[in-house]
Amino acid sequence: MENNVYKVYEDEIQLLEEEIKLLAGKYDDLKQESTFYSDEEILTSIKLFQKEFQGESKGECPSDLKAQLESLEREMSFLMKFTGIHFTSHSKKTLEKHENRTVQKHRLSGNCHSLPFQLEFQLLETQSKENVSAVITDFNVKMESEEYSDLSKFVSSTEKHGNLLLFFRSLSSYAEWYEHRRCTFLHFKVLFIEL
pLDDT of 90-125, one tens digit each? Predict the structure, then answer.
């Protein structure tokens, strides 16, 4: 009789351990998945946090935390001005996770000067004893190619090679000159209308 009672308890313990493993896996997946928000949403959240924090600390905000935040905002602003690239959203989802191999799907969208873009790619990370390597696969670029028809060869080449750095460098350069051409043609259009 006692053996049957112990068997029931052991079975229950085993079921609970399996459920804990399942929930721990789901928790890890949710923790790794992240979505980045637009600058406006970030600033709104920061302001709300500061108001709550100031209410709790009676109007005093730690100066070192505030200085770090201001420094990060300046750096982010500098990078956006320097490159012309402004990310509006990013999401990451873990597709596979093994002991030494992880596959994640990323989605990025934003603007480079006045050109909108969307990227989707998978990042395969493999870890060995010496180093970690990352390879981009299934690279897909979405741009309104009708308006920017001269970008279609560039987009095809970038998707084929899966080189993010090349994509952003080339897009930044193209978008900067595209903006100059647009302003120049606008200037001549205004002059032509006035004549």
Answer: 888 988 888 888 999 999 898 888 788 899 999 888
Q: Are 117 and 169 part of one and the same domain?
A: yes
Distance CA 107, CA 158 (A): 16
Residue 74 structure tokens: 């300046």
Q: Of 173, 116, 118, give the one whose Cα is nearest residue 148.
A: 116
Whole-number pLDDT of residue 6: 77
- Statement: the pTM of the whole predicted model exceeds 0.90: no
Contact of 61 with 54, CB cutoff 8 Å: yes
Contacts of 84 (CB under 8 A, 6+ apart): 112, 113, 172, 175, 176
Same domain, 94 and 137: yes
